[in-house]
Design goal:
CATH class: Mainly Beta
CATH architecture: Beta Barrel
Strand content: over 45%
Structural class: mainly beta
Radius of gyration: 22 Å
CATH superfamily: Porin
CATH topology: Porin
Oligomer: single chain
Order of helices and strands: HHEEEHHEEHEEEEEEEEEEEEE
Helix content: under 10%
């Protein structure tokens, strides 16, 4: 299972877009020499600590026998009270340096890091899944940051942290694109309305390397107005081990986010990916889309709805049971969020899917497959 998350990245993006191009420049006071100003240590270092707890109960109407829900990482379990995500964090911010360390646990962590590769004795999900982010960054020039470590993905609109999303559960296209990456990234405010991000990473959501090559990616965020953000992101890399022939993967995504008025917002996302088949026998493709609306009904109550589709006939991202012709499923959801306190949110969501082939575990028996699935989930989220 995969996503793009973007909490720390989006926070950095928002900060950069809100600030003038001269942020971080040294003082132009003639009484302070350039050499002295450059050598002076940062005196505005800010260290903050925090955390988040997301406790939930979900009921899957197909009632899977092993209590594991299929194809989504959140919620991951059926008919069970559990922790979707809990993390603690420490963040450092200064004019020229920043960083974040966050440690995590929860059923969404278990599901999302299940595909983390094990290559050698000191890699694999048992070692890496507890690290949400661990990166350090330096501002090498005005409006240009270089970060290195483990950080949230540059791909997508939906975060790994439920409180930051318009819907409680994440869309299929979000769950099957990376939520985290390990490598180096550059974030540059090209203009007051344009942010460019470039990454060199180990691969498609993996901390441990699986081959001798690296992957690259680009993200462009353009805000022509305060209520509109247009995004393009991509990924190019080989996700096969060195023991087999290289199979290049190329992914592209477009996102449009619009705040229509003070109460109603819309965000639309479209994905298209292609990967070479083994033996140079052509390529497999996948594609998907999601449309999400959020309406602020009152100061403490918000409503949300979603329509979505993901098609992966070649099973590049999603492996389905034998006999099914790949994964082709649409769906929708409706949700209600109640926020009586800025640090607390109660979220409830009803979500359903319909597939072309029987791919969902049927009632009580994993050997019986169904074309439809639905669940309801309710959660308490607390920001520490």
């Amino acid at each position: 299972m995969y996503k793009t998350s973007c909490t720390s990245y989006c926070a950095l993006l928002g900060t950069l877009l809100a600030l003038p191009p001269t942020l971080g420049a040294q003082s132009t006071d003639s009484t302070v020499s350039t050499t002295t100003a450059a050598a002076a240590p940062d005196t505005t270092i800010k260290v903050t600590f925090g955390g988040f707890v997301d406790a939930y109960y979900a009921y899957d109407f197909n009632r899977p026998a092993n209590f594991d829900r299929a194809y989504t990482t959140q919620p991951a379990r059926h008919n069970e009270f559990n922790i979707n995500l809990a993390f603690v964090e420490a963040k450092l911010d200064a004019p020229r340096i920043h960083g974040r360390l966050a440690l995590q646990a929860g059923t969404s962590v278990q599901a999302n890091y299940a595909g983390e590769p094990t290559v050698g004795a000191i890699s694999g999900p048992s070692l890496s899944r507890f690290i949400q982010e661990a990166f350090a960054g330096y501002k090498v020039a005005n409006n240009l940051w270089i970060d290195g470590g483990i950080f949230f993905s540059h791909i997508g609109n939906e975060s790994f942290i439920s409180r930051d999303n318009w819907t409680y559960s994440r869309s299929l296209i979000a769950d099957y694109t990376p939520y985290y990456e390990s490598g180096v990234r550059a974030v540059w405010q090209a203009t007051p309305t344009l942010i460019a991000t470039a990454v060199v990473v180990n691969g498609w959501q993996n901390i441990s390397e699986t081959n001798s090559s690296k992957a690259v990616g680009l993200r462009l965020d353009y805000a022509p107005a305060s209520t509109v953000t247009l995004t393009y992101d991509n990924f190019i890399g080989n996700e096969q081990p060195d023991s087999v022939a290289s199979r290049l993967r190329v992914f592209n995504e477009l996102i449009a986010k619009v705040q229509l008025n003070s109460r109603l917002g819309l965000v639309a996302s479209g994905d298209y990916g292609v990967q070479r088949r083994s033996g140079n026998r052509g390529s497999d493709t996948w594609h998907g889309a999601a449309l999400i609306a959020r309406f602020q009904a009152t100061t403490i109550v918000a409503l949300n709805g979603r329509l979505e589709y993901l098609g992966d006939p070649g099973q590049v991202l999603i492996t389905v049971p034998a006999g099914a012709g790949g994964f082709r499923s649409g769906g929708g959801s409706v949700g209600v969020d109640v926020t009586p306190n800025p640090r607390f949110v109660w979220r409830t969501e009803l979500r359903g899917f319909g597939a072309r082939d029987p791919v969902f575990p049927g009632r009580f028996a994993t050997s019986v497959l169904a074309k439809r699935d639905a669940f309801i989930v309710t959660s308490f989220g607390l920001t520490l």
